[in-house]
Every structure is written in C-alpha cells, then in structure tokens.
Design a protein that fits this description.
The protein has about 110 residues and is an all-beta fold. The chain is built from no helices and 11 strands. The radius of gyration is 13 Å and the shape is globular.
Amino acid sequence: QLQLVESGGGLVQPGGSLRLSCVASGLTFINYIMNWYRQAPGKERELVATIYSVGGFTIYANSVKGRFTISRDNAKNTVYLQMNSLKPEDTAVYYCNAERYWGQGTQVTVSS
C-alpha cells in the first residue's frame, strides 16, 4: 500500500526557515515525479514545487521562487522542501503528492 508521510511543519516567525520531509513507502520512488502542494484556509490547493525523478529538474510557483528549494533522496525514498524567508502568506497545510497519492499534510504557520 502506497503511503506518503509528511513531517517538519510548525510555527515560525516571519523570515524564518523550516524543512519539510515526506517519506514514501509502497512504491518504486524513483519512478515518480514528486510534488509539494499547499492549501491555506479558504483557498484552493496550489502547486508549490515539483521535482522530477531523474536529473533533479525542478519547477516552482512564482510565489516561492528563490525562497523554497525542493530536493529528493531516492535512496531514502524521501522528498524535502526547504523553506527560507518565510512570510505570513506561506501559512498553509503542506501536502506531499505523487500522481493520485497524497500525504495527510503538515501545518506550517508563519506568525510573530
């Protein structure tokens, strides 16, 4: 059974950093493009970052470009999202995604 488990969320002050992790099981991880999405209260879920399985090609939403970095460790079946220079508008539940599979989400709150 495929499972995605996120961790690393929390409360951080504006300008701070967090690193999210997502561990995948039940799949051949290297075969999957991995995504991070987020959903803020009252808003639609939006794609934040994507990383391809081979070569590490990445894509970012304009709102996070230059501040967030997605990476993956295929040996550990893990995808990461390093978030720097966090802003209050980054507050959301962050979800790991692989095709039709979703994690349970991890809350990120940016507030002073």
